[in-house]
Amino acid sequence: xxxxxxxxxIEFPPPIVAAAIFGLPTIIGIMLKSGADIEATxxxxxxxxxxxxxxxxxxxxxxxxxxxANLFAKDFRGENSLHKAxxxxxxxxxxxxxxxxxxxxxxxxxxNFHKTALHxxxxxxxxxxIRALIDAGADLNAPDGLxxxxxxxxxxxxxxxxxxxxxxxxxxxxxxxxxxxAALSMAATSGNTDDVKxxxxxxxxxxxxxxxxxxxxxxxxxxxxxxxxxxxxxxLLVIVRMLIVLMYSTLHPSGMKVVIKAGANIQAKDKNGExxxxxxxx
Length: 282
Prior knowledge:
ANK repeats lie at residues 44-76, 113-145. The chain contains 15 helices and no strands.
């Protein structure tokens, strides 16, 4: 019988990766001078740089970048060092990485709907990282794999200061994204009156597309009832739909008033030829 060994139950990463885990830049420097492999990996594909970015050790990242670590290396999830720093909210590391290699900014994380570092930072609500990436020249109109450009994503996760910044940077407020919606349509659907006002102030088109008009929120909410409860009797379905409409107008009356006041076409139709009024008729 083979003797028990703790090495059979616990994986030990290469020493230089372990040093990165614990944030030991001096030790890593000594190891590198002694010939340690700067691209050594653990079983999950973490190089010392990837591990340092994952853990938020900016001093280690600084040493590794200066020692010419591979900034494009990926782990088992397909994440590179900038993806990790953006997800973790490590602004200083983000600045170090994009300063060393600006092209990292637009490399998508293919395994996560082709999101760039900016998309990841917005989704994680790390405003410091978002600002750093914007200052570094990130594409402010590029959509991710879900067709969500940065402005629309910021509306979805409710980042008012970032929305202001993106509008100030003159992003395309009328660009169609997820579900063929524009930013104004998305804001109206969520009932976020402030975001609706910001979009209109940026001269967003109230009738930018078949989905971007005052009744859009109403139509999407009422139409969804058909998909959620297709087995309801027609008369009960009408009542439920009317209740949803009343609920939306009660909770978000100001948002509806804002877009109507802005000159929205209340007779506009969706792709099925229905207006908001059609959606609550039998």
